[in-house]
Design goal:
By secondary structure, this protein is mainly alpha-helical. The protein contains 15 helices and no strands. Helix 3 runs antiparallel to helix 11, helix 4 crosses helix 11 and helix 13 packs across helix 14. The longest helix is centred in the last third of the chain and has 27 residues.
Length: 324
């Protein structure tokens, strides 16, 4: 009778976790079917998919790496404006615009990753918030290029893959965004279930211990911050492409705060927590804003209090037990 080494068992365990479970396939298929099941709410589905993608990008650094950020909208805004300008000034092809936004957003994330390597959580919060404010002011000042306070208007996109024109009801846009979300989720679940992802959680739990066992903490944090910036820029690019507009709102503090609330609702450190949080938050916002347009944030605040007092684990523990 033979037995494998602990290292080999760990590798086999990671490979097993990296395999997509049947329930996950069902969930992903359900996501893909939403633009066709809810045709009259296609634009809402599109907005939820983009917001979920943005929430997942924040979860990479917050939930898996322990990096607190209140200025993640900087990368979301960069992706939105870069995709819009790419379409207006160069090529209106959607996929080329996504690629451009992801690459440039990754470079921006790599540059600013140097700012989160040192200091406490409070320092990181202030630095990331400052980066977002800089992006807001630059977009406002460069009005000849970005439109300033009026926003970047008239972003006309070509058909997806040269065949699928964006329609007025938003069904093609919703399918485009949801499909992008599903592809990103499949890629990221491989990342978080790899040795790299395990190293990130080790750094999050105890940075000194991770350094003592030989993990390159700085390189891993820079890499995940860059990856997170790429995903956030991708979400921003989708917003500009599917709405034909980019405004200063994409850099706002409220944008970063909302996505943080979504992770509180869905759960950080769980790949699908951002998706669950985005769905719950957007649906509640949609319903409450139609009932009490002036006070819907009051009910959101009440929900957060209930989550804290009752415990999110009791509400979402059945889902969290089937982790990706």
């Amino acid at each position: 009778m033979t037995s494998g080494t602990p290292g080999s068992k760990s590798v086999l365990g990671l490979k097993s976790q990296a395999n997509v479970k049947p329930w996950e396939w069902l969930g992903l298929v359900a996501l893909l079917s939403c633009p066709w099941l809810f045709v009259s709410h296609a634009m809402l589905v599109n907005e939820i998919a983009i917001t979920a993608l943005f929430a997942v990008s924040l979860d990479l650094i917050l939930g898996y790496s322990g990096i607190v950020s209140l200025g993640h909208a900087a990368f979301f805004g960069w992706g939105s404006y870069s995709a819009g300008l790419f379409a207006k000034l160069w090529i209106p092809d959607p996929l080329m615009g996504l690629l451009f936004s992801v690459l440039t957003g990754g470079i921006l994330g790599l540059v600013f990753s140097l700012t989160i390597l040192r200091g406490t959580d409070l320092t990181r919060i202030m630095v990331t918030l400052g980066v977002s404010l800089i992006g807001y002011e630059l977009a406002n000042r460069l009005s000849g290029l970005t439109g300033g306070a009026d926003g970047l208007q008239g972003v006309l996109m070509g058909p997806v893959l040269g065949k699928f024109e964006f329609d007025l009801i938003g069904q093609v846009a919703a399918t485009y965004s949801v499909l992008t979300l599903v592809v990103v989720l499949l890629v990221l679940r491989r990342v978080v279930n790899s040795p790299f992802g395990v190293g990130l959680t080790a750094i999050r739990d105890n940075r000194l211990r991770a350094e003592s066992v030989g993990l390159s903490v700085a390189k891993r944090l820079m890499a995940v911050y860059c990856l997170s910036a790429c995903v956030a820029s991708l979400a921003g690019a989708l917003l500009a492409q599917t709405t034909g507009f980019a405004s200063l709102d994409v850099f706002s503090f409220e944008r970063s705060a909302d996505v943080m609330l979504m992770l509180v609702i869905g759960g950080a450190g769980w790949l699908y927590g951002g998706v669950v949080g985005a769905v719950v938050f957007k649906l509640i916002q949609q319903e409450l804003s139609s009932i009490t347009p002036q006070y819907w944030m009051f009910w959101i605040g009440l929900l957060l209090i209930i989550l804290v007092l009752v415990g999110r684990e009791k509400l979402f523990s059945p889902l969290r037990r089937i982790r990706p």
